[in-house]
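Quick one before lunch.
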Amino acid sequence: MITRTPPLWHTADWQKSLARAIRDPRELLATLQLPDSLLAGADAAGQDFPLLVPRGYVARMRVGDPQDPLLRQVLPLEAEGLPAPGYVADPVGDLSAMARPGVLHKYHGRALVVATGACGIHCRYCFRRHFPYTRANPMPERWQQVRDYLLADESIEELILSGGDPLSLADHRLAGLLEAVQNVPHLKRVRLHTRYPVILPERLTGDLLGLLSALPQQVILVIHANHANEIDANVRQVLVPWRQAGITLLNQAVLLRGVNDSESALAGLSEALFAAGVLPYYLHQLDPVQGAAHFAVDDSRARTLETALRNRLPGYLVPRLVREQAGAPAKTPLV
Ligand SMILES: *Cc1c(COP(=O)(O)O)cnc(C)c1O
Ligand code: SF4
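Model of the pyridoxal-5'-phosphate complex:
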């Protein structure tokens, strides 16, 4: 039997991978041997939210298949420009929940920081694709404000780092934020929501793990995988030391038409996650953000899929099917 030592990644590796990511629809289509007829739509839809996809993620796509579930998440399509009533720029009421610039405080005990607007991939269904990051970004010089906000409210026990993708920040930036908040006495947990473990696993360097495991708080890493094909051997390997360090690994997925809207795709995702040491947490109904209507799955179909999963899998592999509703005190269950 061949045993493979997990690769030890360094900062230069992920920064290089990110710099080499594909940004030109022509190159993506050529790499995957897809027809030029997709180009006009990709160019048009990429105008205000451009294509961005790391090569390592493209390598997990099937060549020659325009319906590939990973490709569908990143390829700008003409359909994004079609009018869709009810699909708006701020579908979840983020702007009215902003307690301080970049600090969203919607739910009891949890404050969420939009740590950066940058991502390592551009997901076409993203509910923050129109988020005014330049206006709402806390920025390093304002991290003291985040600390003051947390200190002033003893009910906040969990800090959630979101974005954009918080792991787009260089380690020293992240360290600055964590340093500002680590001695808030009532803070028990720090949670990161990130797609990097899936889209660019080399981001999970030993240095980053060192930084997070040194925190006095419990750390939770919520990875965002939507399909089993996203979870390859690199993803599984890179998560091993994180698990060993006692970090809780959870997954949040979005229910997406043409990506994972079948019983087999969702069951396959849960199985692949568990094999990587990750528990499924949420399955989100799509937020009705402008440009994403073609990904919508209707509620009755979503419930049917949830029931099928519940009848097929152990309970711990069935994610909670929820929707985010502006102004609600928690994510709203559909079942
Ligand atoms: C989704 C979300 C959370 C986290 O909710 P959980 O149910 O704890 O996962 C916290 N704050 C905001 C603003 C959110 O949108
Ligand atoms: S990584 Fe997250 S925040 Fe960034 S584009 Fe994708 S869904 Fe949106």
